[in-house]
Amino acid sequence: MGISVDKALGIHQYALAMRVERSRVIAGNLANVDTPGYLARDYDFKTALRGLASDIQGMSSQQRLPELSLDSDLRYRVPMQPSEDGNTSELGVEQTQFASNAMDFESSLTFLNMKLAGIKKAIEGQ
Predict the structure, then answer these.
(1) What is the annotated quaternary arrangement, including any partners (predicted)?
(2) Domain count, the chain
């Protein structure tokens, strides 16, 4: 019986990919902070990950893991202080969200590295 790396890593590889995608979305919000009429977007990481985890749990061991698609989870952000030009991207909020996501990315990467180190030790018989 072979080892399925996808199954061994579980949800953690998806969490990392979701963090990367969220960084891209927030970076777009930051780039458009002064664009009139721009509508900031983001997604609820916990809800998206929970949905993906339930999809993975319901799978049999022979099924391939699903492709990651976050387009359906992307939502418009409601501004704390609306601007006159209709832009909903707020510099302070976007910077905070980006920094928080970067720290969460580091945590996810560290956890994934620990999982890989454990798999390596198991393969080597240590």
Answers:
(1) The basal body constitutes a major portion of the flagellar organelle and consists of a number of rings mounted on a central rod.
(2) 1
